[in-house]
From TrEMBL:
This is Cysteine desulfurase sulfur acceptor subunit CsdE. InterPro entries: Cysteine_desulfurase_CsdE (IPR017763), Fe-S_metab-assoc_dom (IPR003808). Keywords: Transferase. Residues 21-139 form the Fe-S metabolism associated domain. The active site is at residue 58. It is an enzyme of class 2 (transferase). The lineage of its organism: Bacteria, Pseudomonadati, Pseudomonadota, Gammaproteobacteria, Enterobacterales. Gene3D superfamilies: 3.90.1010.10. It comes from the Bacteria. Its EC number is 2.8.1.7.
Length: 145
C-alpha cells in the first residue's frame, strides 16, 4: 500500500512545472506559484510525522519519508510547516517520484530550481533547507544501490 500519495511525479512533473513558472518573471509571482504548489501536496497524517523522518537544520519543520515499491522504484512523501519549504519539497517530489534509486542519484536536483528561477532567490536558511532535502534524497537512493 502506498503511504501518503500525492500528485507530484505522476500528474505534475518537470514539464508541467516549467510551464507553470514560464510566465512568472517577478520573484513575487514565482513565490505565489510555490505557495500554490504547496497547497497541492496533501498534509502528512500525524502518524507519519515521525521523529526519524524529520530533517534537521531546516528553518521550518520538514518531514521526508520513502518506501521502496515492488518494481524497484521509490515513492517519496513529505510535508513541512512552511509553505515555501513545502512548495520546494513539491518540486523535488515532481523530479524523483517513481524513479529508480539509480536514476535519482544521476539527477541534478538543483538544476530545475535554477531553470524555474527559484534557487537564486531563496534566503540562506531556505537554501540550506533545500540542500538538506537534496542530500537526504540522495542518501536514501544510495541505500538501495
Amino acid at each position: 500500500m502506498m503511504l501518503a500519495p500525492h500528485p507530484f511525479g505522476t500528474d505534475i512533473g518537470t514539464e508541467q512545472l516549467l510551464n507553470l513558472f514560464s510566465d512568472k518573471k517577478q520573484w513575487e509571482d514565482r513565490y505565489r506559484q510555490l505557495i500554490q504548489l504547496s497547497k497541492l501536496l496533501p498534509p502528512l497524517p500525524e502518524a507519519l510525522k515521525q521523529q526519524q523522518l524529520e530533517l534537521k537544520g531546516c528553518e521550518n519543520r520538514v518531514w521526508l519519508g520513502h518506501q521502496l515499491n515492488e518494481d524497484g522504484t521509490l515513492h517519496f512523501y513529505g510535508d513541512s510547516e512552511g509553505r515555501i519549504v513545502k512548495g520546494i519539497l513539491a518540486i523535488l517530489l515532481a523530479q524523483i517520484e517513481g524513479q529508480t534509486p539509480q536514476s535519482i542519484v544521476k539527477l541534478d536536483l538543483m538544476q530545475l530550481f535554477d531553470r524555474l528561477g527559484i534557487h537564486q532567490q531563496l534566503s540562506a536558511s531556505r537554501s540550506q533547507g533545500l540542500d538538506s532535502l537534496v542530500n537526504t534524497i540522495e542518501k536514501i537512493a544510495l541505500l538501495y544501490i
